[in-house]
Specification:
Number of strands: 5
Helix content: 55-70%
Radius of gyration: 43 Å
Shape: elongated
Number of helices: 9
Strand order of the largest sheet: 4-3-2-1-5
Oligomer: single chain
Number of domains: 2
CATH superfamily of the largest domain: Arfaptin homology (AH) domain/BAR domain
Distance between the termini: 79 Å
């Protein structure tokens, strides 16, 4: 043990040689460390994504360490649904506000249930495999790496011991080669030198034997560690499969949420039409003036000059106004005397038909608007070319 720590200290101080591992082995070690570090970060951030509340995460961690079942927790959506339902009961479930609260609350409950299913699926199919790697395979790899480090220190200590023994043997041999002075009664120097040489020779043999044993142990441990490190490739394959499953469950979760919100929007849209149409009819019946009162405004209107109007048609974002298309042909319109502006194109845009103008990123064009156009579109000009362009692809300049 003393030799072990002596070798470790001398290496740290740069006073001892160190057995270096081959380049492939070092690359395996670096890859394993990289896998461990990124797996920890991805695991922690996924836990934050699934459970943003840090106190709840700590509670779940403690339950897992105590090997106890994590208690079921109400999701935020389910809690909101509960509050909306209770409010509807207080306001009156038959009132328009109460009915709407019930519908929205039911959708929030479904969203909360979908969130719960997503969290459960992600925990089993994604978090658990990552956690198993860190707590299982990685611990085994770390243990074997520590053993390999100890074997290497023993090996280098044996190398240093053998080196010193050979140096001492050579020195003793040189002293023993000196011609003894036989005029003395006892040639003590010669006898002691021969004895020291024999002792150091035995020491060299012992050191060589220990070196062979430690070298064998080091090679065996290096092979075990190498096999474990090469298994990181299988870990990557497993994590890749889990990642696909996580994305699939997340996609299903958001698709469910989107469908629930579409259904709610349709319900609220029809209810809104009924409510407001009833309100307008009620107001018209209660506030409509007598027939005689309508004649003066009619006469006044007859004396005003006629003003042409353009029919107003509801527009959909990203879809050109059909009335404007029928009235305005971008290739035939002329730019207004004022109101034109320069614009820089942010992204490439491929024209959908002959009425649109294809765009290239970073080019400069002239744009302007015409009456009746969809506000999401402008007329763009580039030299002799002209056509409709989407506003979101432009940076309007002063």
């Amino acid at each position: 043990m003393a030799t072990f720590f002596l070798q470790f200290t001398e290496e740290k101080l740069g006073q001892a040689e160190k057995t270096e591992l081959d380049a492939h082995f070092e690359s395996l070690l670096a890859r394993a460390d990289c896998t461990k570090n990124w797996t920890e970060k991805i695991l922690r951030q996924t836990e934050v994504l699934l459970q943003p509340n840090p106190s709840a995460r700590v509670e779940e961690f403690l339950y897992e360490k105590l090997d106890r079942k994590v208690p079921s927790r109400v999701t935020n959506g389910e809690l909101l649904a509960q509050y909306m339902t209770e409010a509807a009961n207080d306001f009156g479930p038959g009132t328009p506000y109460g009915k709407t609260l019930i519908k929205v609350g039911e959708t929030q409950r479904r969203l909360g249930a979908a969130e719960r299913d997503f969290i459960h699926s992600a925990s089993i199919n994604f978090l658990t495999p990552l956690r198993n790697f860190l707590e299982g395979d990685w611990r085994t790899i770390s243990k074997e790496r520590r053993i390999l480090q100890n074997r290497r220190l023993d090996l280098d200590a044996c190398k240093a011991r053998l080196k010193k023994a050979k140096a001492a043997e050579a020195k003793a041999a040189c002293e023993g080669d000196a011609v003894p002075d036989f005029q003395e009664t006892r040639p003590r120097n010669y006898v002691l030198s021969a004895s020291a040489s024999a002792l150091w020779s035995d020491e060299v043999e012992k050191a060589e034997h220990e070196l062979r044993l430690t070298q064998t142990e080091f090679d065996r441990q290096a092979e075990v560690t190498r096999l474990l490190l090469e298994g990181i490739s299988s870990t990557h394959v497993n994590h890749l499969r889990c990642l696909h499953e996580f994305v699939e469950s997340q996609t299903n979760y958001y698709a469910q949420c989107y469908q629930y919100m579409l259904d709610l929007q349709k319900q609220l849209g029809s209810a809104k039409g009924e409510i407001f149409s009833g309100t307008f009819v009620g107001n018209a019946e209660s506030t409509s003036p007598p027939p005689a009162a309508t004649s003066p405004p009619a006469v006044a209107a007859a004396t005003l000059p006629a003003v042409p109007t353009i029919p107003v048609v509801p527009t959909i974002v990203g879809v050109p106004n059909t009335v404007a298309e029928s009235v305005l042909n971008p290739n035939e319109v002329k730019p207004p005397a004022s109101g034109t502006r320069k614009a820089r194109v942010l992204y490439d845009y491929e024209a959908a038909d002959s009425t649109e103008l294809a765009l290239l990123a970073d080019e400069m064009i002239t744009v302007y608007s015409l009456p009746g156009m969809d506000p999401d579109w402008l007329i763009g000009e580039r030299g002799n070319q002209k056509g409709k362009v989407p506003v979101t692809y432009l940076e309007l300049l002063s």
